Amino acid sequence: MKTIDLDQPKIVSPSEWLSARQRLLAKEKELTHARDEVSRLRRKLPWVEVEKTYIFDGPNGTVSLADLFERRSQLIVYHFMYGPEWEEGCPGCSFLCDHVDAARQHFEHHDISFAAVSRAPWAKIAPFKQRMGWKFNWVSSFGTDFNYDFHATATHDELAAGKMFYNFEMTEIGGEEQPGGSVFYKDEAGDIFHTYSFYARGGEELLGAYKFIDLSPKGRMETGPLSWVRYHDRY
């Protein structure tokens, strides 16, 4: 069996290991407390009312942004990278969405709905969704401004310039579609508000598989972000 190079870990006594682990635990607790504080600040962000009407195409015809809430007051939208000309959805977005259905059975009972939104036409989304075995709601924003308004797709001018407003600043990009998510609230009057968005590595918080991998001594073993990830039916 080939020996794995783990940067030659130091082999120590149980008492030395315990001391090292206690030092690391202090750092882990700092991170937990910092994450709690970031979550508190996230909930305190101001909101922006969504005044534009967005209409999507889905398995049962057209639906509005309000329809995606499905009788709940909170909605998480994942901007799934799937361009109109693409034959398949993004592998990295697929990796993230592999986590959704297991979590969804719980957070739907916490007044939260989920929907993936892509610019690919529904006729392309449907067979890919079936192939991947996903049950969550997924709709097409083809022909609408939704992806552009929430900065998940570069405009023609941005694409030509090689830069777009992404992750809350002008950023160099390598393609038209970019990953991210947006969160919305709908009040009793039916008014909708944009409360939060995340982009780039912000989506890692939703990747439960990474939490397992990061516990292991070999770690992620990546040559680049998600370099090892495949569609779950192609490993």
Strand order within the widest sheet?
1-10-9-4-5-6
Strand tally is 10
Poorly predicted residue ranges: none
Largest sheet: 6 strands, mixed
What is the residue-mean pLDDT, rounded to a whole number? 95
Overview of the molecule:
By secondary structure, the protein is α+β, with helices and mostly antiparallel strands. Helices cover 31% and strands 21% of the residues. It contains 7 helices and 10 strands. It has a 6-stranded mixed beta sheet with strand order 1-10-9-4-5-6. Strands 2-3 form a two-stranded antiparallel ribbon. Strands 7-8 form a two-stranded antiparallel ribbon. A hairpin with a 2-residue loop joins strand 7 (163-166) and strand 8 (169-172). The radius of gyration is 20 Å and the shape is globular. The relative contact order is 0.15. The mean pLDDT is 95.
Spell out the blueprint of helices and strands.
Elements: H1 14-43, E1 48-49, E2 55-58, E3 61-64, E4 74-79, H2 91-97, H3 100-107, E5 112-118, H4 122-132, E6 137-140, H5 146-149, H6 156-161, E7 163-166, E8 169-172, E9 180-186, E10 192-199, H7 208-213
Parallel strand pairs: 4-5, 5-6
Antiparallel strand pairs: 1-10, 2-3, 4-9, 7-8, 9-10
What is shown here, in short?
With about 240 residues, this protein is an alpha+beta fold. It contains seven helices and ten strands.
